[in-house]
UniProtKB/TrEMBL annotation:
Source organism: Salinithrix halophila
Subunit structure: Homodimer. Heterotetramer of two MnmE and two MnmG subunits.
Cofactor list: K(+)
Taxonomic lineage: Bacteria, Bacillati, Bacillota, Bacilli, Bacillales
Cell location: Cytoplasm
Main subcellular location: cytoplasm
Note accompanying the cofactor annotation: Binds 1 potassium ion per subunit.
EC number: 3.6.-.-
Full protein name: tRNA modification GTPase MnmE
Catalytic EC class: hydrolase
Annotated binding of (6S)-5-formyl-5,6,7,8-tetrahydrofolate, by residue: R22, E85, R124, K458
Classification via Pfam families: MMR_HSR1, MnmE_helical, TrmE_N
Origin: domain of life: Bacteria
Length: 458
């Protein structure tokens, strides 16, 4: 159990210039009291109340900042320790000065994630919730943030706990059977365990299906834009990003470096990569670009394949279309503002069932349709995602797969008439794998590793 008192700036400076310093630990109220000058000392105020006052430099008695101090006594706090939050108003320099003064008077600077770690260690939240707090801090879109909030509220935890309960009930049947072998219920026990195990397996499968969407929300859809030189790849990237980070040029083949950019398409984060056109070339510099394009295509979640409305379909286009059919691709016919030279019928016959959108990036036409096509592909029309439980953490996915394997072994064991005490081992393993998700029986070094990825002050 931690016994020292920690402090850190827990919000970054907003537009209003307010920053909050959070102090947590048994001495937090006493430490702040030594620096605080207000109507009454903080150790005399009721819990969960806010007080106006000044923070003074303990050595010189100089006023460091005017503050609002919130006093929250254990256990009804985030860390389940005594917590004091100091809202500073005077900008970054006074905030730093107040923090310095706290550190000079027995508070220790919190490590990244240490507040959340204490909340976990004191039983306030479980591990999956703590990890969700981290996802929340990092989330790139509102939708991703909502998923993290759901998880932080304990949705995933409750589901995992229920699955563990199911497994425990199976194990309980087994215990009865093993302890009273004369009570000839082997058949019945096996049947009950089979039912429960199949049910658990199904629910884990369902959770794993959500993992793909969870990953998308967390890390963004890795998207590559491919097409012949000059077809409008950089222009499209820029239009989607609403800023000019990629180089746009009239000279074919000049986008040589792979540039990454995050954009928010209807709440779905897209990680866009602009690539040199995929085509055979003798130019060495360009070849590096092309090779990287092939690689990017293989690693992409989404391929945006551009064709030029103003040119006939070329050999390169056909090659690209062939390649693209093996991936999740949206075909975009660009430059529709120019006279048509593209045989759209041929294109339609070549793309199979791939979605096709026509655009004029220059005249900003067709971009809405493109965004809708992306949303259709990745959210499968499901826009009401706020209530869903998503598994979005690779550690959780790994453990779920592990648990699923153990449950599956148990099912096969029962079906092939294995002795039930062998099956028992599989089910216990499944129970333990699930337990690791919520932090039951997790090794201390793993806990340290998880929390060290946090931002300071959380
Ligand atoms: P990239 O080589 O595929 O990246 O193509 P760029 O984005 O660099 O664009 C090549 C040229 O085509 C630039 O001059 C763009 O302004 C122009 N361009 C891009 N989209 C359109 C469009 O929809 N219509 C027209 N007329 N020109 C476009
Ligand atoms: Zn380009």
């Amino acid at each position: 159990m931690e016994t020292d008192t920690i402090a850190a700036i827990s919000t970054t400076m907003g537009e209003a210039g307010i920053a909050v310093i959070r102090v947590s630990g048994p001495e937090s109220i006493a430490i702040v009291d030594r620096l605080y000058k207000g109507k009454q000392p903080l150790d005399a105020v009721p819990t969960h109340t806010v007080h106006y006052g000044r923070i003074l430099d303990p050595a010189e008695g100089k006023v460091l900042d005017e503050v609002l101090v919130t006093v929250m006594r254990a256990p009804r706090t985030f860390t389940r320790e005594d917590v004091v939050e100091i809202s500073c108003h005077g900008g970054m320099i006074p905030v730093q000065a107040v923090l310095e003064a706290l550190l000079a008077s027995e508070a220790r600077l919190a490590e990244p994630g240490e507040f959340t770690k204490r909340a976990f260690l004191n039983g306030r939240i479980d591990l999956s919730q703590a990890e969700a707090v981290m996802d929340l801090i990092r989330s790139k879109t509102d939708r991703a943030a909502r998923v993290a909030v759901n998880q932080a509220e304990g949705r995933l935890s409750r589901l995992i706990q229920r699955l563990r309960q199911e497994i425990l009930e199976s194990l309980a049947h087994l215990a009865v059977n093993v302890d009273y072998p004369e009570y000839d219920a082997e058949q019945l026990t096996g049947q009950k365990m089979l039912e429960k195990s199949r049910q658990v397996e199904q629910e884990i499968d369902h959770l794993l299906v959500t993992a793909r969407q969870g990953k998308i929300l967390r890390e963004g859809i890795a998207t590559v834009i491919v097409g012949r030189p000059n077809v409008g790849k950089s222009s499209l990237l820029n239009a989607l990003a609403h800023e000019n980070k990629a180089i746009v040029t009239d000279i074919p083949g000049t986008t040589r470096d792979v540039i990454e950019e995050y954009v928010n398409v209807r709440g779905i984060p897209l990680r866009l990569v602009d690539t040199a056109g995929i085509r055979e070339t003798e130019d060495l510099v360009e070849k590096i670009g092309v090779e990287r394009s092939h690689q990017a295509l293989a690693e992409a979640d989404l391929v945006l394949l551009l064709l030029n409305h103003a040119e006939e379909l070329g050999e390169d286009d056909r090659k690209l279309l062939k390649l693209a059919r093996e991936h999740t691709t949206i075909v975009i016919v660009n430059k529709t503002d120019l006279p048509s030279r593209l045989d759209l019928e041929e294109v339609t016959s070549l793309i199979g069932g791939l979605p096709l959108v026509t655009t004029s990036v220059k005249e900003e036409k067709g971009l809405d349709e493109l965004e809708q096509a992306i949303a259709d592909l990745f959210m499968e029309g499901r826009t009401q995602t706020a209530d869903a439980t998503y598994v979005s953490n690779t550690r959780h996915v790994h453990l779920l797969k592990e648990a699923r394997k153990h449950v599956h072994d148990a099912i096969e064991g029962i079906e092939s008439g294995m002795p039930l005490d062998m099956v028992e081992i599989d089910l216990k393993n499944a129970w333990e794998s699930l337990g690791e998700i919520i932090g039951d029986a997790v090794a201390e070094d793993l806990i340290d590793q998880i929390f060290s990825q946090f931002c300071l002050g959380k």
